[in-house]
């Protein structure tokens, strides 16, 4: 990914109250970082929306970049037991092959795909019970463990420290 060459990062992840529930937004490469989606979930997001411009090597379900795209979407959904709405452009632009696969993933179970466009242009649409499905997921996931409630942020403090193994801003500890 070369996004850092063209775009400037934001400095927070916001959650908005809407008629259908609390919606959090992250953008494209943010999906590669568990902390982004978790930040939205602990702020109360019930739906995470993630528009992307994800490039592929080839238009194939076996494409390595598409596999990453899929893994990130499902992982962020299941880790946080929320709905995940992903959108991507499709087709080819100049020499770039686009992922497509706009989708709605539900929080219940590991692969709760509610709607998808595949490689084609279109809209992913599904009728869902946002609060009901999230409650069900949070009461039944991982053998009745609540992945949000049972987290232990006090054990993750190393994530925010700069060390020789954690290259935040390309700095290292002396």
TrEMBL record:
GO molecular function, one term: hydrolase activity, acting on carbon-nitrogen (but not peptide) bonds, in linear amides
Pfam families given in the database record: CN_hydrolase
Database matches in InterPro entries: Aliph_Amidase/BUP (IPR050345), C-N_Hydrolase (IPR003010), C-N_Hydrolase_sf (IPR036526)
Keyword Cytoplasm: no
Keywords: Hydrolase
CN hydrolase domain span: 1-130
PANTHER family for the chain: BETA-UREIDOPROPIONASE, NITRILASE C965.09-RELATED
Protein name in UniProt: Carbon-nitrogen hydrolase family protein
Lineage: Bacteria, Bacillati, Bacillota, Bacilli, Candidatus Onthocola
